[in-house]
């Protein structure tokens, strides 16, 4: 029995190369198929805007592909794990490695090392490229794939609290008193949250105090009446400083900037549970790639001639997809305040790490 965690250099390189090539192949396949389906569903909206053409479709694809890579890279690692390990098992290479004195952990060590490298690449890619692509794409979608305003700090799908009332905007641009909003909706509510009136406007600007809505439609819920006005002042308690403080989209802000923004929120006495959970998940999310070889390891062992290889592969796939389900559920609970932020982001990772280790040790070690 070798005491080193890794097998020989030649075997380590062989397994790592085999694994990485399959990760790239599966990722390219998934991204291409999903990108084509995405274009089929959104190309009509993009081309419906005057002046948009093939260039805008390519721009959309360039902004969407990084998001698809971010989302499906862990799935690619899981599928590549199953493909690699099933192939090695069918060719009796796993049997040969175990006959040479390698433990199950030593067989998996090159795959785990490769997955750790992939996780590091995923983190850097997410924070340097995906965040910028997400911010640009959201601003473009909020403009209905038309020209995006040249103002700084464009943000899409804004939700702001005005006491008991709520102000939403499809797009927000500018800073301080120069903030301008498009496709604005203001909900007047009573103390129990019931909506009393809905006000829709094309544009809103700061009126010092309040926000001046232009081209207004007012719908009174109790009387079911609709009125139109040229201008209306609402949300007099909502200031530009409060909006600037609320200008955080965790999906479009890098890890190192999101932490300082959360500190500013906490200093202002704002609730930060959702942001803190997503901040932690920026670390645990990419690291999920490291789990995939461990969860899919059950497909590597057991005799291929026993007829149970397919069942083992299904069990490995079930464990991997169960992790993603639990991870999304825990993050949702953290966003609603059901779990502490650290627990929401890291509990699924450690839980399935223990499950993977338990299955591997009980069956093979």
UniProtKB/TrEMBL annotation:
The chain crosses the membrane at residues 12-37, 72-88, 108-125, 283-303, 309-326, 338-361. It is a multi-pass membrane protein. It is found in: Cell membrane. It comes from the Bacteria. Keywords: Cell membrane, Membrane, Transmembrane, Transmembrane helix. The keyword Membrane applies. This is LPS export ABC transporter permease LptG. It comes from Qipengyuania psychrotolerans.
């Amino acid at each position: 029995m070798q005491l080193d965690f890794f097998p020989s250099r030649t075997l380590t390189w062989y397994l790592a190369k085999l694994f990485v090539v399959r990760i790239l192949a599966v990722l390219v396949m998934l991204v291409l198929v999903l990108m084509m389906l995405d274009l089929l569903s959104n190309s009509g909206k993009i081309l419906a805007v005057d002046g948009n053409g093939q260039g805008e479709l390519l721009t959309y694809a360039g902004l969407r592909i990084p998001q698809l890579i971010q989302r499906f890279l862990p799935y690619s690692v899981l599928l590549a794990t199953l493909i690699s390990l099933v192939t090695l098992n069918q060719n009796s290479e796993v049997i040969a490695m175990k006959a040479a004195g390698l433990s199950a952990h030593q067989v998996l060590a090159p795959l785990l090392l490769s997955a750790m490298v992939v996780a590091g690449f995923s983190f850097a890619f997410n924070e340097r490229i995906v965040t910028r692509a997400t911010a640009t794409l959201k601003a473009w979608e909020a403009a209905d794939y038309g020209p995006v305003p040249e103002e700084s700090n464009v943000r899409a799908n804004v939700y702001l609290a005005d006491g008991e009332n709520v102000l939403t905007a499809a797009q927000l641009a500018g800073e301080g008193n120069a903030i301008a909003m498009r496709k604005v909706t203001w909900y007047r509510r009573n103390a129990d949250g019931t909506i009393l009136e809905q006000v829709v406007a094309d544009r809103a600007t700061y009126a010092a105090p309040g926000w001046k809505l232009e081209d207004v439609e007012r719908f009174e819920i109790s009387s079911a009446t609709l009125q139109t006005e040229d201008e209306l002042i609402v949300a007099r308690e909502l200031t530009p400083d409060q909006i600037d403080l609320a200008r955080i989209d965790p999906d479009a802000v890098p890890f190192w900037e999101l932490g300082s923004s959360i500190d500013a929120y906490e200093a202002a006495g704002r609730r930060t549970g959702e942001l803190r959970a997503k901040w932690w998940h920026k670390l645990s999310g990419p690291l999920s790639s490291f789990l995939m070889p461990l969860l899919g390891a059950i497909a590597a062992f057991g005799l291929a001639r026993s007829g149970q290889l397919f069942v083992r592969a299904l069990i490995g796939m079930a464990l991997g997809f169960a992790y993603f389900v639990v991870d999304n559920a825990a993050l949702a609970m953290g966003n609603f305040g059901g779990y502490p932020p650290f627990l929401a982001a890291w509990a699924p990772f450690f839980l399935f790490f223990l499950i993977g280790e338990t299955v591997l040790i009980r069956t093979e070690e």
